[in-house]
Amino acid sequence: MELIEVSRERDIAIIKPQLKRIDASVALSFKEAVLKVVESGEKAIVLDLELVQFMDSSGLGAIVSVLKALGTRGLLAVCNVKGAVLSLFKLTRMDKVFLIAETPSDAVDKLS
Question: Which parts of the sequence belong to the STAS domain (predicted)?
Answer without folding.
Answer: 22-111
